[in-house]
Amino acid sequence: MKKYKNILNSVDKCDNFLLTTHVSPDGDGIGSLLGLKYILQLYADKIDLVLDDSVPEYLKFLSGTEDIYLYDEFDKTENRIDYDLVFVVDCGDLDRTGNVVNLISEDSKIINIDHHDDNQEYGSYNYVDSTVSSTGELIYDLAVELGANFKRDFGIAIAAAIITDTGNFKFSNTTSKAHRIIADMLELGIDTEKIIREVYENENYSGLKLKGSVLSNLHLAGEENISWASVSQKDLNHFQADWDDTEGLVNSIRSVKGVEVGVLFKEMAEDKIKVSLRSNEYFAVNEFAHQFEGGGHPRAAGCTIMASLAEVEEKVISKLESELGFNN
Ligand code: AMP
Ligand code: MN
Ligand code: MN
Question: Is 298 helix (H, G, I), strand (E, B) or coil?
Answer without folding.
Answer: coil
